[in-house]
Every structure is written in structure tokens, then in C-alpha cells.
Design a protein that fits this description.
The protein has 12 helices and 10 strands. It has 298 residues and is an alpha/beta fold. It folds into 2 domains: 32-262, HUPs (Rossmann fold, 3-Layer(aba) Sandwich); 265-298, no CATH class. One zinc ion binds at residues 270, 272-273, 275, 281-282, 284-285. One zinc ion binds at residues 3, 5-6, 8, 21-22, 24-25.
Length: 298
Amino acid sequence: MKCRICGKEAFVKLRSYNLALCEEHFVEFVRRRVEKAIKKFKMVSKEDHILVAVSGGKDSIVLWHVLNELGYRTTGYFLNLGIDEFSNKSQKIAEEFANRFSLELKVEYLRDVLGVGIPEIARISKGKPCSTCGMIKRYLINRAGLDYDAVATGHNLDDESSVLFGNILHWQVEYLERQSPILPRDRTLAKKVKPLVLLTNHEIKLYADVLGLPYIPDSCPFSTGATTHYYRDILNTLEERMPGTKIRFYMGFIENKKGFKVKEKELKPCERCGYLTTAGICSFCRLRERIKIQFNLR
Ligand SMILES: [Zn+2]
Ligand SMILES: [Zn+2]
């Protein structure tokens, strides 16, 4: 198997593209996919200052690395969720990466914001804390992102296609409307972009490994058994049989999205903090109230 670009021995065959590449040209392929997503969806320009949400996982690390390599102006944002060992390890990775490439990293501690971390929140929530944790991350990343031209997150093709699959499976049309690789700025909502949407988990991991980038391999200890993992497995089975299924499924949706136009719920500023919400008081402020009462905080 030879690299299609240079004819040297290939180290990977990307079956969805029927493309064999050597290490060097694979790295270039990944960068071109990111650039393509940025241009296609008009995400950001070289003048923009981008806040990159960094978790220490491979996706956000690769995202930050590629954006930096492509010459974008970036600052990292790490939210320490207070999940002891896991959060501290993740933070070290983010800091190590920032130091290595001389990039600026902002760190915020959930304990400073709410007085407690995710383990305490898990104790007072029914079931898995993942949806609450997701809401907290969206809220605080958004808040940090308001000072920047855009917030970039590491959502990849596997994330986006499995969420899409779940939303279609249950016909949650109201979620389809907002599922997009780019969300424009709207009052207190920062502009959000997902430059890794054209890349799979596998491609991203390979990029990180080829370049020896540091990342935290284990996923959050609270997330085992989440439903989206099933959807992911199903899509991977389909992909195995029919290479290119994921990218066609996702891009087909994005290109035909107009057919899914549903009446969007009107967003109004939260009465406490101004964050746009469909309720009077946003979920974050309601959680904050609950935590104060449950843990006797002032
Ligand atoms: Zn090559
Ligand atoms: Zn609020």
C-alpha cells in the first residue's frame, strides 16, 4: 500500500475516502479537513481571537494544535470540574500542552464558581450527572467565550453523527434546528464553532499519536454507559460495512437541513444572569440555588 500523494509506504488507509497515506501526508490531510470545515461553514477568520475549550482529551488537544498550526489566534480555556484525580490529570495535560507550544491557557475552577464540584452535584442529582455537567460546561464556556470572537469546541464527526442519530431516532426535531457546526453570536450567547466535524474519532486519535501530543486517554469516570455510546457503536458497525456512512449521514443532514425547519422556541435573557433561556430563570441559576440550599452555602 503506497501513499497516494508521494508514493512512499502508507501507514493508514482511510476507507471512507479510499485513500492510503504516509504519516506526513496524513497529518496534512487532517489539517486540510479542518481548514475545509472552517471555510465551508465560514466559522472564523485569521483576524479572529478564538477561545478553544480544552478538556485534556484528544479532540480538544488536536483542535488546539491544528488551529495553532494553521495560524489562528487562540487562547485555551480549561474548566476544572473538581472530579479529583481525573480533573487534575486533565488540567496537567492542558497546561503541559500550552507550555510546549507557548500558548495562553485560562483555567477556571467549578468549586470557585459554585462552591462544589461534579461529585457533589452527582450526589444530589437523579441518575447520571452527565446532562447537568454538560449544561454547566456549556454555560461557563459560553460565559468565558463572550470576550472572544468565537468559541471552538472539539466535537467530531462521531459526536455529531451519534447525537444526530439519537435526535432522529426519537424525532426530537426541536434539537435538530440547533445542531450545526456553527452557531452565530446572539446577544449573551457567544459564537460557537466545531472545526473537527469532518474528522472521525479514529482520525483524530491517529493525528495525536503520530505527533506524540499529550492527552488524557480515559474518559470521565461518571460517563460510563451513557446512551450516546450505543448510537456511536451502531454507527461504527454501519461504517464498518459501508465506509463513509457517517460523513454522508452528517453532511446529508447539514445540506438538507432547511427541510427540518421547525418553529424555534423564543429565547429570553435569564432574570438572574442574562443568559438566553426558554425558561424565566436559566438551568445554571436554578442549579446554583439548589446547591446553596442543599449544601448550606451562602
Ligand atoms: Zn506521502
Ligand atoms: Zn441564569
